[in-house]
Amino acid sequence: MNNALNAFSLAGRVALVSGASSGIGRAVAQALAAAGAQVLVVARRAEALQQTVALIEQQGGQAAALVADLSDFDGLAELVARAGEPFGAPDILVNAAGLNLRQRVDEISPQSWDQTLDINLKVPFFLARAMVPAMKAKGWGRVINIASLQSQRAFANSLPYGASKGGVAQMTRAMAEAWSAEGIGCNAIAPGFFPTELTAPVFEDSDRSQQLADQTAIGRNGQLSDLDGPLIFLCSRASDYVTGQVLFVDGGFTAK
């Protein structure tokens, strides 16, 4: 039993979490640190990142902040080099940065389309590809992408977001095909409705929020702590034979 439990430990691992200044990204960083990983949090907002670091350190974890614009693709090599400075090269990557502009179909411009697809789909691929060589050198790694209910379902005023998240599901499978033979597990978590900055408009509407809760099999919307167990599983040795999968953590929303 002890060996089975040890398989979930992240002691000795280094994780990089993008979009860790708030919401799911911050919750992910806290969970990984609580499981024993040293965590590098990355986003553009310096003050919010420092708040994430402070929360982790208050809980006895280890974390460092790296302020960066992930959409600056020319700077990815430098970003990855800097990422290794606090704790060594990361062997876990969680792509949690995301964008949903919630535009009506007739409001979508080529610019807003590209902005959404860049953050939600392009950044995760190129960041992962830049980090994979260090994982290959260790013979072990994890890439966790954040998919969505919209990887399978359509919602109003979210066409570019839904397109990007459908792409994330397929990108995850393609990453697994490319890198799993070298010890790098590639999976995605698809959250249901959780209270974050992105979903604030939903939770501010009590009727809409209750309607979505009623759509789940469990009967409630998500709490960020609901993500901890699935996340730790996919980031640890416990998932060594699991790759190319999209795990829906949605209270059974997609089961109905």
From TrEMBL:
The UniProt record lists the keyword Oxidoreductase: yes
GO molecular function, one term: oxidoreductase activity, acting on the CH-OH group of donors, NAD or NADP as acceptor
Alphabetically ordered keywords of this record: Oxidoreductase
Coiled coil: none
The keyword Transmembrane helix is annotated on this UniProt entry: no
Gene3D superfamilies in UniProt: NAD(P)-binding Rossmann-like Domain (3.40.50.720)
Pfam families: adh_short_C2 (PF13561)
PANTHER family associated with the record: 2-DEHYDRO-3-DEOXY-D-GLUCONATE 5-DEHYDROGENASE (PTHR42760:SF5), SHORT-CHAIN DEHYDROGENASES/REDUCTASES FAMILY MEMBER (PTHR42760)
Family under the similarity heading: Belongs to the short-chain dehydrogenases/reductases (SDR) family.
Record protein name field: SDR family NAD(P)-dependent oxidoreductase
